[in-house]
Amino acid sequence: MNKRASGVLMHVSSLPGAYGIGCFGKEAKEFIDFLSDTGCTYWQVLPFTPTDAYNSPYASISAFAGNRNFIDLEQLRDEGLLTDDELREQMYANPYSAAFDFLELRRIPVLYRAFTRTDEAYRDKVRAFAEENKSWLPDYALYIILKEANIGAEWYDWADEDLKLHRPEAVAKAMEEQAETVLFMEFIQYTFFEQWKKIKKYANSKGVEIIGDLPMYVARNSADVWANRHLFDLTEDGEPKNVAGVPPDYFSEFGQKWGNPLYNWAEMKKDGYRWWMDRLGACFKLFDAVRIDHFRAFSAYWAVPAEAETAKEGQWLDGPKTDFFDAVNRTFKDPKIIAEDLGIIDDGVIDLLKKTQLPCMRVMQFAFMEGKDNMHMPHNYPKNCVAYTGTHDNNTVLGWLWEAQPYEREHALKYCAFPGGDWAVGGSESASCHAIIRTLWQSPANTVIVPVQDLCGFGKDTKMNVPGVPNGNWAFRVTQEQLDGIDKKWIKELNDVYYLSLIHI
């Protein structure tokens, strides 16, 4: 990512559509057309994995599986696997919010109907796909089935000790007994990946690349931990010894105890970090570039004893550092990785970034809280970085302006040469939002990314996520009318003036 380029951050779930959530349908291609028409190079998305009970894509039961809700039902209809009447049953009236509860009730039954109509030739394709992904897919499929059989209990609470501990004979027997249902689960994943492959191919044909997102840790209640206990910091019985978190800081007296199991890096090193290489390889098939969340854990990570009441009792332990990235570079040719280096950054993280030469991140909303040396001030950006107005965890630009301290807001507006008028006015032609976005484009950063909410000039009610608040997140959706209202000519002008024109110098 060493050439100047720009893009838009919007998760697939936020796309327009008639079926309760954005998906891999015609609306995805229309959004790609929008990016291409405006001269943007990147579409950045959030993790594609299944979401947790709070609908977060950052806490999944699998590090590899795709979210079934993104499957385009109309394509299944076109293949003769669903009817128009069945599609009408899946329609949802509210276009402004993802209908998670509705989808939880409706999506599996309709996908099963489609599965029952597949012929043997189709199923052979599914079986071939499962074989290609045997490192994770059969375990994931069986995990879903066993979890349901155990009335939703997590694997470490299952009554059957042999299945709980993933003993090979018990797993093989369950696979045989549940062969048809396992194949159904594999059908869902086959459909997901085949449909996305078409979307990505279309994007690349239009000059648009996809930036994916990779959480550092996985959930304890995941198929990955269940099937690979030796790769995590667990007891023989699957109990965590230490868990992930961050230490106390200015914002948190007790730190944050996230609860994810930590990696057993010494064990992972024995086979060249194979699980991680498989995980990255899966990402590179889905995306053109990958952002790794909480990158600092590769340098050092905060280990909190599982029994500790707060994260204050944790300690810093060394991560794999450059040894891990040496393995990455041996495995992949020119991997495009973005390092999320926000939060507590020390000399070790800085040194690792320097040695790996990975692009770091900068967030403009953080620029105006400190002095002129603040690394998030646009004039301080290094070329080798990806700069944002905000991320999925931030307020929107307009929402931030409303909630900022008066001195911060005044500083930001002066810095960004706000032309005057009412800074509080939103919408796709908001003068304050335009001034801030333009300033980002003017920065030295090779890559700039803007959330779609900021291009629309939306307020804080459209935030994707509020960190630390479990409920009410991840539901934002944009309508086609709102996308059509964005000033494409203005974005194209930014790209022509600050990016494309530089190619000819």
Q: CATH first level: which class?
A: Alpha Beta
Judged by helices, strands and strand pairing, the structural class is alpha/beta
Gyration radius, rounded: 23 Å
| Terminal Cα span | 19 Å
Number of strands: 12
Describe this protein's structure.
- This protein is α/β, with parallel strands linked by helices.
- The protein has a single domain, classed as Glycosidases (TIM Barrel), CATH 3.20.20.
- The chain is 40% helix and 11% strand.
- The protein has 20 helices and 12 strands.
- The protein has an 8-stranded parallel beta sheet with strand order 9-6-3-2-1-12-11-10.
- Strand 1, helix 1 and strand 2 form a beta-alpha-beta unit.
- 45% of the residues are buried.
- The C terminus is likely disordered.
Q: Which helices and strands occur, and which strands form pairs?
A:
Layout: E1 5-9, H1 26-37, E2 42-44, H2 73-78, H3 84-89, H4 100-116, H5 120-132, H6 137-149, H7 161-164, H8 168-177, H9 179-205, E3 209-214, H10 223-227, E4 242-246, E5 256-261, H11 265-270, H12 274-286, E6 289-292, E7 300-305, E8 315-318, H13 322-331, E9 337-339, H14 347-356, E10 360-363, E11 385-388, H15 397-403, H16 406-415, H17 431-442, E12 447-451, H18 452-456, H19 480-484, H20 488-498
Parallel strand pairs: 1-2, 1-12, 2-3, 3-6, 6-9, 10-11, 11-12
Antiparallel strand pairs: 4-5, 4-7, 7-8
